[in-house]
Write a structure and sequence with these properties.
It is built from three helices and no strands. With about 100 residues, it is mostly helical. The relative contact order is 0.03.
Length: about 100
């Protein structure tokens, strides 16, 4: 015969262990995320310092990239307005290809 009190105690103990494991996993995830963020910042600073030492101004590069991105955005918007059906066809074709690739 099954002792319900014993089963209830074991279930409560198992629940407590699972909750503890979840807390430990969350803490480990947070620590890993923080470590990754620190590493990324360190790498970014190191690369920027080496580029500046080589005579490359990263601030100028960032501004140039922003300017090119905004120009590309403007060109795309003009193309969409000028040829909406062509743009729709291209988007549909890309969607079909991606759908076929992910279905495999």
């Amino acid at each position: 015969m099954v002792d319900t009190a014993s089963v209830a105690k074991r279930a409560a103990a198992a629940k407590a262990e699972v909750e503890d494991a979840v807390e430990r996993a969350a803490a480990a995830g947070a620590a890993a995320r923080d470590a990754a963020a620190e590493t990324a910042e360190s790498v970014t600073a190191n690369v920027a310092a080496k580029l500046k030492a080589a005579g490359i101004d990263t601030d100028v590069m960032a501004e140039a990239a922003k300017g090119q991105a905004s120009e590309l955005q403007r060109l795309l918007a003009e193309e969409l307005r000028a040829r909406p059906l062509r743009s729709l066809g291209i988007a549909a074709a890309i969607g079909l290809i991606v759908g076929l690739m992910t279905a495999r």
